[in-house]
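R.M. (postdoc): so does anyone remember the format we settled on? I'll just put the structure tokens first.
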């Protein structure tokens, strides 16, 4: 069910509720029910919010209800944060109220062996046509709805990357990490035990969500019997939007840890590798690599061909990027004589106009801009890896401004990744580039890896013929 074709589906309302009840809302700031209610209010949700707690009259300035059945208005979504043994009767009440979707924060279900309780939870919800996210989760964030129904960080940066996490603690930590790194998110979905809503359901929603450009999933396993559906849905969605998966539990010990953590059946890693390849999914080893890829894929247009060029002011950085490009399957263009002559204008006689294009340590900000415009405006060049090693000759932040000027003045934008190697000035310059929509990284290898992800997806989606 996509965001467009099934606008009245329970999953649509999960992301776009008109009203939310927080069952287990608390007056105690140390309680999850307090933090979720606080985040919903303070992040600016525009719909109606109803705290539910039989022992309170008011929480955070809102009238509190003894039961969801006491709320006079319709309720689209209920967030449930109460001990597991009390969840079933509350789900029954939610069904009678006409709630469309449940966000079940509570733990103590299949992940600790209470499989029957989890089964009854889903059975009860289905009786009333409700869908369940969870249990054993930290909540859901959806930027376009100004909805932060999590007990994670509040100030998530709205953007176009959807992050789906089976792990609660890691998911919350990465929410905070994205804020620190300036990574902008359209959604954060905590999956937990995946008793009902699973990865395929979420992929179907994001398939036509206009606010999501890239989907990143942290996964420990797929529930038995659902692997084929995941592959079918991912294969369809990945032709339209890149899907990046961090699949944990790669080793035997890791798989055992996943089983005790979320009840995931990790299975043989080779099977997952084959499934991801069949579905066009990009598999990342860790979260740094995954978010590097997501940043590039969310910012850059797909390439129209395979010819990549490296522009650098340092020979060593150029060699490192060359090795990384070859290892990642990026084709470095053999520079024809006419292009060599054009690039020579931007370097001293001892520079190299081949590929890498070495402007040397004497390169000025204007030389970088000129060489970059040559690359942008040359139809035989399809992508650019731009490297800068900090020197006293060139100011990193001024150089960043010149790169942005070239990006904006180019006849046609092409995928370009940037790496600035140096001190705090380089960090500030790269933040400026990121803000302008140009993905920047602190090492050549990370920049090249990100461009390789853009190429892998572009080949899969048919933008570049393999």
């Amino acid at each position: 069910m996509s965001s467009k074709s099934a606008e009245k589906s329970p999953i649509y309302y999960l992301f776009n509720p008109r009203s939310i009840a927080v069952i287990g809302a608390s007056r105690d700031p140390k309680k999850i029910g307090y933090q979720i209610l606080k985040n919903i209010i303070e992040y600016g949700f525009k719909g109606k919010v109803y705290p539910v707690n039989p022992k309170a009259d008011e929480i955070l300035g809102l009238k509190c209800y003894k039961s969801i059945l006491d709320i006079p208005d319709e309720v689209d979504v209920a967030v449930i944060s109460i001990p597991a043994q009390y969840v079933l009767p509350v789900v029954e009440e939610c069904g009678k109220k006409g709630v469309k979707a449940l966000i079940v924060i509570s733990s103590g279900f299949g992940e600790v062996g209470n499989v029957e309780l989890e089964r009854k939870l889903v059975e009860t919800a289905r009786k009333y046509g409700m869908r369940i996210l969870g249990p054993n989760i930290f909540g859901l964030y959806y930027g376009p709805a100004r909805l932060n129904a999590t007990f994670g960080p509040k100030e998530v940066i709205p953007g176009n990357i959807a992050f789906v996490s089976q792990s609660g603690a890691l998911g919350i930590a990465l929410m905070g990490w994205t804020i620190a790194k300036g990574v902008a998110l359209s959604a954060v979905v905590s999956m937990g035990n995946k008793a009902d809503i699973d990865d395929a359901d979420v992929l179907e929603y994001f398939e036509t969500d206009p606010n999501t450009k890239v989907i990143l999933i942290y996964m420990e396993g797929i529930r038995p019997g659902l692997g084929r559906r995941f592959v079918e849905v991912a294969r369809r969605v990945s032709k339209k939007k890149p899907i990046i998966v961090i699949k944990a539990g790669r080793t035997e010990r890791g798989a055992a840890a996943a089983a005790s953590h979320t009840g995931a059946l990790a299975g043989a890693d080779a099977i997952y590798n084959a499934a991801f390849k069949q579905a066009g999914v990009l598999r990342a080893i860790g979260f740094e690599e995954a978010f590097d890829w997501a940043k590039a894929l969310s910012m850059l247009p797909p390439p129209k061909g395979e010819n990549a060029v490296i522009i650098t002011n340092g020979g060593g950085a150029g060699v490192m990027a060359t090795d990384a490009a070859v290892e990642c399957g990026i084709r470095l263009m053999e520079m024809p004589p006419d292009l060599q002559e054009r690039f020579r204008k931007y370097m001293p006689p001892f520079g190299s106009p081949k590929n890498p294009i070495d402007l040397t340590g004497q390169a000025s900000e204007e030389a970088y801009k000129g060489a970059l415009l040559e690359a942008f405006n040359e139809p035989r060049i399809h992508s650019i890896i731009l490297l800068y090693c900090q020197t006293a000759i060139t100011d990193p932040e001024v150089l960043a401004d010149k790169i942005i000027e070239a990006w904006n003045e180019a006849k046609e934008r092409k995928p370009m990744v940037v790496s600035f190697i140096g001190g705090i000035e380089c960090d500030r310059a790269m933040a400026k580039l990121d803000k302008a929509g140009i993905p920047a990284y602190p090492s050549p290898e990370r920049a090249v890896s990100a461009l390789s992800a853009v190429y892998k997806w572009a080949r899969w989606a048919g933008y570049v013929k393999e």
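R.M.: ...and that's the designed sequence above, right after the tokens. Also worth knowing: The chain has two domains: 10-296, 302-461. The first helix runs from residue 10 to 15.
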